[in-house]
Design goal:
By secondary structure, the chain is mostly helical. It has nine helices and three strands, in the order βαααββαααααα. The protein has a single domain, classed as Orthogonal Bundle (Arp2/3 complex 21 kDa subunit ARPC3). A three-stranded antiparallel β-sheet has the order 1-3-2. The longest helix is centred in the last third of the chain and has 31 residues.
């Protein structure tokens, strides 16, 4: 989901931009590009995934004039490459959307926050929970991280967008439309969860080494 027109108060646009800038700065401080330069295979996979997600973002539904609905794939990127590279991908994709004229540039920080920071944080927390506290079972990883994590990330992103509109919508009609949109969030969660879980299932069977958050030694070799 992407907010495509500046329907938020200027102070909220500025605040979201600053929060997104800080989080992206923290992600870049981990120097994720080093892994890309050291591993050509990872570099090719990351670039291909970023381009594919950018293309899939073009398949979207215009809910109202200022809101478009589309699959985010942030959960999938986070599980495949971990949060720093996933956030870098989402930021690049949002910048390209601005350059293509699909989104107004003042909304760059808002959309990075909604489509990148919030879902990546949720998936990262779910992964940490599975990694530290749940049994070393591949199906547990797949269903909790791949299916449940993606659904929860979609819900969190939608609620973040609605919360921002409730805090700083330009007029009451926009707020009413946002609240109406919130009622359809449960319908968006299964599609994101199904596609993420399905792709993760294929990768875990054929290329588990491509999933950065999956420890093949713990989940496969020791069984």
């Amino acid at each position: 989901m992407t907010i495509s027109e500046p329907v938020l108060s200027p102070w909220l646009l500025l605040l979201c931009g600053l929060v997104s800038l800080v989080v992206i700065g923290l992600a870049l401080s981990r120097r994720p590009w080093i892994a890309l330069f050291d591993d050509p295979g990872l570099q090719h996979r990351w670039l291909a995934a970023t381009v594919m997600v950018l293309l899939l973002w073009q398949l979207r539904a215009q809910a109202v004039d200022w809101l478009t609905l589309h699959l985010m794939f942030t959960a999938l990127l986070t599980l495949l490459f971990k949060a720093p590279l996933a956030l870098l991908s989402i930021t690049i994709i949002n910048i390209v959307m601005v350059l293509l004229g699909r989104v107004d540039w003042p909304l760059l920080g808002v959309n990075v926050l909604v489509t990148g920071v919030v879902p990546a944080l949720v998936v990262g927390l779910v992964w940490r929970l599975v990694d530290r506290h749940l049994p070393d079972n591949m199906m547990v990883f797949l269903f909790i991280c791949g299916f449940f994590g993606a659904a929860l990330a979609t819900l969190a992103a939608g609620l973040a967008a609605v919360g921002l509109l409730a805090a700083g919508a330009a007029d009451a009609e926009i707020l009413r439309q946002a609240l109406e949109y919130a009622r359809f969030l449960p319908l968006l969660m299964p599609s994101e969860a199904f596609i993420t879980g399905m792709l993760m299932s294929i990768l875990l069977v054929y290329h588990p080494d491509w999933v950065a958050t999956f420890n093949g030694h713990r989940y496969i070799d020791t069984k």
